[in-house]
Write a sequence for this structure.
């Protein structure tokens, strides 16, 4: 079958091989991503978008698998990124820019050089002139191509216009001339009369050709030059060019032309030399130059130049710029009001204060007296700057030697020039002095004592000599006043004021206070006058005091260890040096100070922070303020020590100074001690009050302390103490008695000197606090704070404040004779003290205390016996009892007349405070005794136990 | 025990006067501070300069290498402390804060802090771990220029021209001030950390007990000539070494206080030996002598 079939068919060609079913070459359909575009050379093409194809690289994206790669910006120090600007070529293939691409590149003539006549034709056909000897297009034709013409000109040309002709219908010659004239006129109007009239030269020609028409003249456009500068219209600046560098235009319009019977004669060009028609000119070769002008002010120098003449001439004509016309109605001027006039006697015064608690700095404000600034001295500046002014006084160089007359004179001259510190200023400085160095130096300077002392004949002699040297119009009459004035002299740095003050002293002496006005300069205002008068009065008050003694005792040689810190320090330094010399290194040369490393430092050193949470004691010390009353306080206590060598005073002052010392200590201690000790502190606080009342000194420091105390321990502490207070009273009462005893006895002894100090204090108050409401308010403030405090503690504020305003303690002392009390309480120590003049005060005090302590044991409180007729604080009951037995002793009566000022009755609620005082004292004492007097160990331990008990109670 | 010191090498640093030479912490390298405002890193054993660090605006006064030798801190008359990266030679940080030329600078043990002492009487502590450009603490107790600063694990020892050495004990939180009688040009701890070697301007090197401040020994004889001489102890704490104006390195026996040796260079010089450095492990000394650095070492091993 098959064969027959084969036979039946005729096969042509070679049969295909049978398909292998297993491995059929499956034709994969071409995916889009595989459709790469290649160029003629087989390179991958970009994408061919411009030439019809579309292939965008990998999966029809460009570049990477991820598609379009965003353009990267990468810039480093080594390879700075360049500013990339994209061009269309970036997105083209090479073929696109080839000859037949869409943007063929090649060198071609730019539009300007393309023959404009052939514009429009597709491509220039190269016409070959085979006739020429040189085949091809003529070279010259290639080179010289016409410049580009505008479309308008091209159109015109097509319409038959030719360059050089005007536009319009043809005209006869006459018409043409007429139009030309019209044009000329217009031109003239436009350009002013600068250009001389061009003569119509065609006029002279014959009018033959009537029929002949001409093309109209080309319209010559006149051009307004666009303004390309910021000058005013019509301004042309001076030419800086010199004559030789300048371009001389030879084809300018003729400089000179005349007309002579229809013929114009003109002189063209510029000639050198002076022309026949020109006036003799100085500067024929020169042009105007800036250098020839005077730019400085002064008497006007006429520069005779053509330019200036011209300009001035034209200016004068119509008084306005060329091309401008004067306005018919003027602009309204703005009305300016003048500033108000100051009154003639106006003096700008500004009083400077450090704060409202300080009195205004007088001298500073005075320095601008009469509206004129005076030369400030170094002292003044220091005062303004609140600096500690360290004038090196001549006698300071010899602190231990008695100053000679010469040195006095020198100091006096310095004083006259306002260079020496005034007494007043010194006091002010003391309060500010942070380092006590300069202050201590002053203290050690003995010359102060000498200078002010009246009593010693030697010194007064010295003063006399001084006065002879520096006599001031013989305002002094007797020696006393002279010395007084000598002291006065240092009160005002302003010499004029000083003079007035001296004069005023004389007036006061004569009882003619009102004369002050007559010597005050007229330039002073009423207010100034009044102020000065008050000032003088206060100063006089101060001087009526026994200043000599005061001043003399204010400064003392550094013998008291409590305030000879500097000398001690210096001596220590000496010691150290000595030790180094002796090679005794160790304890002497070593100094240990607290130091707090920063927390980060500890962290970096891998060390736990030492003393975490501890308060830095130094910081708080620094924050404590100093005031003038500090020094007052100190000096008073010292003063008594110095003023009289009597042992009574010594005792008194020492007890006071001790107290104050303790208070000072407390001040600093307070901050360190924990609140758990608040009870003890409370007592010390009360002591504080007590102390103040006994010592009768208002000290700023104390007030500060009170405030700081309240701040530190707050309300609640005082309240808790209030609670405990009652429980304590029994304990404290006993102590009160003992302490009262001591205090009173001491105050009694010192009453005379104290009285003086009291008055001085008042004076200082009046000086520093007077005439300013601020100080009053300050007082009130302090009163308020005290009132709050007293409420908390349980006291009547008035009783706390009494001693501040007036001097009530005098009242106490006036009534109460405590000397006798002490005697009656069998405290023989007192007597011993008075008799034995050189006893250690510490021992005395401690003995006193212990003795009185013994006394306390047998005392029974029986109050209110004398209360009805007594002033002042309530005395301890036991004392009162004893007092009742004793009659008023003679000593108290002797003391009484010493008090000069008014005795103010005082409310009688003092016992509690007294008690607290005792408590504090006791604690302190016990500590001291422990060290020094071991034989009294048992007693002091008793004290300690007591104090501990109190602590527990709180 | 007899130790013989032998001059091993004299390196000409070619950077002007060498103000200071310092061993690195491991003793493998040394740093020289030049008057030409350059700081150089050397291999002193081969006398090869490894790297030059330029960036100071004035003479480099002192330098200190960090414990891992990755950083160098240097100071100079340009009032700036520069922290360098050793490898790249670029300044990592430039610490400005001192008001005067800086005399001395030190890393602490962990190289996390830098302590610098300046002629403005100030010692400043810089935290180089953080990026702070301000000092973390000032030590302004000195009343005159700070001449040297040393840092132990918990102490900072400063010497000042006011004649005092101050030891700030961070652990205790106290400052111990010892008065030396004359300006102190250098104060350094002994190796055991119990004593302080103090060079005074009066030409005496004093050994001070650290805890009590007592004088343990005085070493004199060398010429001070008002130079800011440095002193140190040797590695075994047995000898005191000090520079001298006569161009010799003076070595005293610590116990007997007698001069053991006066080491000098190959040729006599007119330059003083001011700065010196002792190898942390072996008895190898480096000292500056004008433009050169001299290197001595023990020739014989001690018995």
């Amino acid at each position: 079958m098959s064969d027959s079939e084969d036979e039946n068919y005729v096969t042509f060609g070679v049969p295909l091989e049978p398909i292998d079913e297993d491995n059929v070459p499956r034709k994969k359909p071409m995916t889009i991503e595989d459709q790469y575009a290649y160029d003629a050379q087989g390179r991958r093409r970009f994408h061919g978008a411009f030439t019809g194809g579309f292939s965008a690289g990998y999966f029809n994206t460009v570049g990477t698998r991820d598609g379009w790669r965003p353009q990267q910006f990468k810039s480093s120090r080594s390879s700075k990124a360049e500013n990339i600007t994209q061009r269309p070529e970036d997105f083209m293939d090479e073929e696109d820019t080839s000859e037949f691409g869409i943007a063929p590149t090649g060198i071609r003539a730019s539009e300007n050089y393309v023959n404009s006549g052939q514009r429009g034709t597709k491509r220039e056909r190269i016409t070959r002139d085979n006739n020429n000897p040189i085949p091809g297009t003529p070279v010259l034709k290639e080179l010289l191509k016409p410049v580009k013409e505008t479309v308008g000109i091209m159109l015109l040309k097509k319409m038959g216009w030719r360059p050089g002709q005007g536009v319009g219908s043809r005209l006869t010659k006459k018409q043409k001339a007429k139009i030309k004239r019209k044009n000329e006129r217009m031109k003239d109007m436009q350009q002013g009369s600068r250009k001389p009239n061009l003569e119509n030269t065609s006029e002279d020609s014959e009018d033959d050709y009537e029929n002949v028409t001409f093309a109209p003249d080309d319209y010559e456009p006149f051009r307004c030059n666009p303004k390309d500068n910021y000058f005013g219209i019509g301004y042309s600046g001076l030419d800086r060019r010199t004559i030789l560098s300048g371009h001389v235009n030879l084809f300018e319009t003729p400089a000179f032309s005349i007309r002579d019977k229809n013929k114009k004669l003109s002189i063209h060009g510029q000639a050198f030399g002076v022309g026949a028609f020109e006036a003799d000119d100085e500067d024929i070769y020169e042009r105007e130059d800036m250098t020839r002008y005077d730019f400085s002010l002064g008497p006007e120098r006429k520069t005779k130049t053509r330019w200036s003449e011209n300009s001035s001439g034209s200016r004068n004509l119509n008084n306005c710029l060329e091309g401008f016309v004067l306005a018919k109605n003027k602009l309204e001027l703005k009305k300016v009001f003048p500033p108000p006039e100051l009154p003639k006697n106006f003096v700008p015064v500004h009083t400077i204060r450090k704060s409202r608690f300080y009195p205004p700095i007088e001298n500073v404000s005075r320095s601008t007296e009469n509206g004129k600034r005076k030369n400030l001295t170094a002292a003044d500046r220091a005062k303004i700057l609140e600096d500690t002014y360290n004038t090196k006084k001549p006698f300071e160089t010899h602190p231990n030697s008695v100053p000679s007359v010469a040195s006095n004179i020198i100091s006096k001259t310095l004083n006259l020039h306002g260079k020496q510190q005034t007494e007043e200023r010194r006091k002010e400085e003391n309060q500010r002095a942070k380092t006590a160095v300069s202050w201590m130096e002053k203290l050690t300077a003995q010359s102060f004592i000498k200078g002010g002392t009246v009593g010693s004949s030697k010194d007064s002699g010295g003063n006399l000599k001084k006065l002879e040297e520096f006599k001031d119009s013989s305002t002094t009459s007797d020696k006393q006043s002279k010395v007084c004035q000598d002291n006065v002299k240092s009160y005002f740095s302003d010499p004029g004021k000083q003079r007035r003050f001296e004069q005023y002293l004389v007036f006061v002496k004569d009882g003619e206070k009102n004369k002050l006005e007559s010597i005050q300069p007229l330039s002073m205002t009423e207010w100034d006058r009044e102020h000065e008068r008050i000032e003088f009065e206060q100063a006089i008050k101060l001087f009526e005091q026994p200043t000599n003694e005061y001043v003399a005792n204010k400064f003392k040689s550094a013998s008291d260890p409590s305030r000879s810190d500097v000398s001690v320090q210096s001596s220590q330094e000496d010691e150290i040096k000595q030790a180094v010399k002796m090679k005794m290194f160790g304890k002497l040369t070593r100094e240990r100070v607290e130091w707090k490393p920063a927390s980060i430092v500890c962290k970096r050193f891998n060390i736990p922070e030492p003393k975490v949470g501890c308060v830095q004691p130094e910081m708080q010390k620094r924050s404590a303020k100093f005031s003038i009353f500090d020094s007052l306080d100190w000096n008073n206590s010292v003063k008594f020590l110095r003023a009289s060598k009597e042992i009574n005073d010594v005792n008194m002052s020492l007890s006071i100074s001790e107290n104050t010392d303790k208070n000072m200590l407390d001040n600093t201690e307070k901050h360190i001690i924990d609140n758990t000790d608040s009870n003890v502190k409370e007592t010390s606080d009360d002591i504080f009050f007590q102390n103040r009342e006994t010592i009768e000194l208002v000290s700023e420091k104390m007030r500060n302390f009170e405030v700081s105390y309240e701040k530190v321990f707050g309300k609640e502490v005082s309240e808790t103490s209030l609670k405990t207070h009652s429980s304590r009273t029994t304990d404290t009462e006993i102590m009160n008695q003992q302490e009262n005893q001591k205090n009173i006895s001491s105050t009694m002894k010192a009453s005379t000197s104290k009285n003086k100090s009291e008055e001085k204090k008042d004076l200082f108050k009046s000086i520093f606090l007077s005439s300013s409401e601020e100080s009053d308010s300050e007082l009130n403030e302090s009163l308020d704070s005290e009132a709050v405090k007293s409420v908390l503690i349980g006291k009547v504020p008035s009783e706390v404040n009494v001693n501040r305003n007036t001097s009530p303690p005098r009242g106490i002392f006036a009534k109460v004779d405590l000397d006798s009390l002490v005697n009656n309480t069998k405290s023989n120590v007192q007597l011993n003290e008075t008799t034995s003049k050189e006893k250690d005060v510490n021992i005395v005090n401690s003995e006193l205390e212990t003795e009185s302590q013994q006394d306390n044991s047998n005392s029974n409180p029986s109050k209110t016996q004398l209360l009805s007729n007594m002033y002042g604080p309530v005395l301890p009951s036991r004392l009162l009892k004893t007092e009742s037995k004793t009659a008023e002793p003679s000593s108290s009566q002797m003391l009484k007349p010493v008090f000069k000022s008014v005795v103010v009755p005082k409310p009688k609620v003092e016992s509690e405070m007294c008690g607290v005082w005792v408590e504090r004292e006791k604690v302190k004492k016990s500590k001291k005794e422990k060290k020094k007097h071991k034989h009294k160990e048992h007693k002091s331990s008793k004290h300690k136990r007591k104090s501990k008990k109190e602590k527990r109670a709180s | 025990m007899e130790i013989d010191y032998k001059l091993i090498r004299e390196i000409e640093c070619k950077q002007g006067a060498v103000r200071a030479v310092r061993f690195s912490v491991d003793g493998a390298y040394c740093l020289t501070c030049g008057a030409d405002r350059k700081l150089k890193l050397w291999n002193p054993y081969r006398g090869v300069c490894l790297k030059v660090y330029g960036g100071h605006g004035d003479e480099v006064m002192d330098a200190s290498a960090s414990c891992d030798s990755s950083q160098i801190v240097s100071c100079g008359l340009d009032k700036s402390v520069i922290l360098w990266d050793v490898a790249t030679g670029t300044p990592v940080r430039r610490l400005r804060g001192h008001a005067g030329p800086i005399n001395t600078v030190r890393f602490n043990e962990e190289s996390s802090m830098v302590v610098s002492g300046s002629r403005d009487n100030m010692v400043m502590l810089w935290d180089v771990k953080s990026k702070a450009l301000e000092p973390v603490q000032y030590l302004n107790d000195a009343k005159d220029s700070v001449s040297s600063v040393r840092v132990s694990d918990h102490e900072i020892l400063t010497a000042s021209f006011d004649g005092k050495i101050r030891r700030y004990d961070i652990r205790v939180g106290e400052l111990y001030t010892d008065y030396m009688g004359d300006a102190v040009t250098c104060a350094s701890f002994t190796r055991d950390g119990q004593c302080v070697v103090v060079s005074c301007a009066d030409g005496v090197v004093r050994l001070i007990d650290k805890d009590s401040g007592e004088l343990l020994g005085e070493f004199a004889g060398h010429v001070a000539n008002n130079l800011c001489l440095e002193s140190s102890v040797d590695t075994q704490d047995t000898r005191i070494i000090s520079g001298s104006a006569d161009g010799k390195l003076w070595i005293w026996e610590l116990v007997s206080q007698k001069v053991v040796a006066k080491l000098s260079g190959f040729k006599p010089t007119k330059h003083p030996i001011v700065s010196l450095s002792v190898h942390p492990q072996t008895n190898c000394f480096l000292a500056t002598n004008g433009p050169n650095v001299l290197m001595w070492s023990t020739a014989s091993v001690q018995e």
Observations:
- The first strand of chain A starts at residue 256 and ends at 260.
- The two ends of chain A are 139 Å apart (CA to CA).
